[in-house]
Amino acid sequence: MAVEIKIIASKKDLKEFIYFPAELHKDHKNWVPPIYSDEWTFLDPKKNKNLITCETILLLALDGEKVVGRIMGIINNHHNELHHLKTARFFYLECYNDDAISHALIGYVENWAREKGMNRMIGPFGFSDKDPQGFMIEGYEHMPVIATTYNFPYMVDLVEKEGYQKEIDCVSFKLPIPQEVPELYNKILVRILKNNDLHLLEFKSKLRMKKYIVPLFRLINETYKDLYGFVPLDEKEMHQFANRYLMILDPAFVKVVVSGTDEIIAFIIAMPDMNEGIIKAKGKLFPFGFIKILRSAKTTKQLNLLLGAVKEEYRGVGFDALLGSKIIESAKKCKIELIDTHLILENNFKMRAEVEKLGGVIYKRYRIFQKNIS
Question: Residue 264 domain-assigned?
Fold first, then answer.
């Protein structure tokens, strides 16, 4: 195959970049389309400041007039400065099963990164750990959840042929909803709330929940600072995330612990799985796609964990158990049978232990790759 690499230079090019995976995966049973309005927002410099603060390149691979692959190159200067690195990332890598395509795409991004003074490449990895990360290497029989990738197995082979090796894995646990919340968790709940000037907040409306969304992201900045690939959010980004996700959050699955002064001590956010609705809507919210998506969230049997955090000085006393038990209670009321824990770093042994105590088992694994390009 004679592969031509084209730099994205027009709205038409960008449209081909965004919609190429739909063609690639059209017969792929478990693939779920993205929400296309989110894709356009993510790749719009007016709406995603990362496209201004980071160095990026978007590429298409062409065989004649036909798009046969795509990739994004990213250099997150802020993260590199914080951690004294010279690392670039590849992201959005999708292509047909052909060494020539993957070699052309990856090679182009590597050369671009070297010209920018970088000596290492990781990927798939976006601007931060809040973007989908890694290629799935186990669990292909299961559908992805929000903000995770779903790739053909051959993508792993193509990347490894380019000299990439494991950087780190993330795992997702499948956690069946227990018939009863363990008695130990109930005792922890009573002890924590009785012996401290703390209050557990549960919500019935998005209006009441709204004022806590930005403070939640401030706690994330505080508690996630040492996690792999994390980049702190500024206030503008916090408000953007709040506006983006508030519409689809179900108040029943947001639990917050606050002090007597209304300071957030801990929280957990989960979301009913919406895959069925997204597939029916073909990734389009309008004119009626959002109805299909919201309807599927009401009938799903799966709950997906999204975010959670506990202030450092309150760790180790049972807040994770408290919040977990409350999420399980709400899930049972909605007849949900299964929780997907979302991505957990393989070396986050404390969180893994908590999930395993409740009977969780690993059922998906994602790998971030790395290569020295100096």
Answer: yes
